[in-house]
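DUF397 domain-containing protein
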Amino acid sequence: MTTNSDLSNAQWRKASLSESAQGCVEVAFLTNGQVAVRDSKDVSKPAHLYPKSTWTDFLDHLRGLLPAEASRISIDITADSAVLSDRQATAGAPHVYTHREWLFFLDGVLKREPQLVGA
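Structure:
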């Protein structure tokens, strides 16, 4: 995961169910082939940056097409939150979402909403 890229022109997208939500998982597909992921509740926190193939593997994991260990990006569901992190990260904090935020994002992934999958 990289966290140091100029994202000033990134077009952030979110799941359709998240449109009226206070916080959400936001995704931006960058011209350099990377995918940026952030928590809209705290946009000052660095976004996570991944190669598109890493993001695709993560989405396939969420859809049940790949085992968890095949994805570099991990999601840990706790009693209080959903924690998105990078298994290979040596720096950068995980993003923490509410269950509602995560479920809205997951709904968009399962529906293959283009703004989340890069289509």
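DSSP finds three helices and six strands in the chain.
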